[in-house]
Design goal:
Blueprint (H helix, E strand, L loop, with lengths): L1 H7 L9 H4 L2 H4 L1 H6 L4 E5 L5 E4 L8 E4 L5 H25 L3 H17 L3 H12 L19 H6 L10 H4 L3 H18 L4 H10 L1 H6 L8 H19 L3
Antiparallel strand pairs: 1-2, 1-3
Length: 240
């Protein structure tokens, strides 16, 4: 069905998730390119990756353009496949990660408190720190969800005698709740578009705005969004 949709240039069925298109996407590239079609990818309201060769919604990204050589399109698919397999390995590690098991209750509490999908919070923490509460980035982001002290202050985390905001952020419960509260804000800001919320979480709201409310063309940010979404998708299919 997917191949015929590519060749006939009729709309790809909404609700067809990326895993169903693996392999079929490459097989259909020849007719898609021959017919001068372009294919976009985007996240629907449920956070599921969709493909379409009709007018895409705002924020969609081109996967295959009519002027994209077959080899380049194949390279795009290879990156997607690699991200998926890496995500599977990441989730497998979670199953035996002691740090993850210790904070699972905090993750569940934060998901309920702020209305964010538990699996999305897990995916962010896995990508950010592998659940290391003492992780500090070169830019100064701290803890499981790698929160900048300045961001934490906006959400009510203040320094006290004998301790700094950065030190407080090494507390797993506080870190998870603060990061989830910020993530919930970003999801509301971008109308539930998970990819844009993640891009802003990584690069800042200003970077997304300057990119025209799209994922900025920063390799780090694009890799980050791809990694989190891949882990998120795997988690949605497994009980971890």
């Amino acid at each position: 069905m997917v191949l015929s949709l590519f060749c006939l240039l009729t709309p790809l069925a909404h609700g067809v998730a990326r895993p169903l298109l693996k392999g079929a996407l490459i097989a259909g590239l020849g007719c898609a390119l021959t017919g001068q079609a372009a294919v976009w990818t985007y996240l629907d309201a449920q956070g599921v990756t969709q493909f379409t060769n009709t007018e895409p919604p705002k924020g969609a990204s081109v996967v295959i353009g009519s002027d994209v050589p077959l080899a380049q399109a194949q390279a795009v698919q290879a990156v997607m496949d690699t991200s998926f397999h890496e995500a599977q390995r990441t989730v497998a590690v979670l199953q035996v990660n002691t740090l993850y098991k210790q904070v699972h209750g905090n993750l569940s509490d934060a998901a309920s408190a702020y209305g964010v999908d538990l699996n999305l919070i897990k995916a962010v923490a896995a990508a950010e720190s592998a659940f290391n509460p003492n992780a500090v980035s070169r830019k100064g982001a701290v803890g499981l969800m790698q929160i900048m002290p300045a961001t934490a202050r906006q959400y009510g985390v203040i320094a006290e005698p004998g301790t700094t905001v950065a030190r407080k952020l090494t507390n797993p419960e506080l870190n998870i709740h603060t990061g989830t509260k910020y993530l919930a804000y970003l999801l509301r800001l971008y109308g539930g578009q998970v990819d844009l919320a993640l891009a802003a979480y990584n690069a800042g709201e200003g970077a997304v705005l300057r990119a025209g409310n799209r994922i900025p063309e920063y390799k780090e940010t694009q890799d980050y969004v791809r990694k989190v979404l891949a882990v998120y998708k795997v988690l949605q299919t497994q009980a971890v």
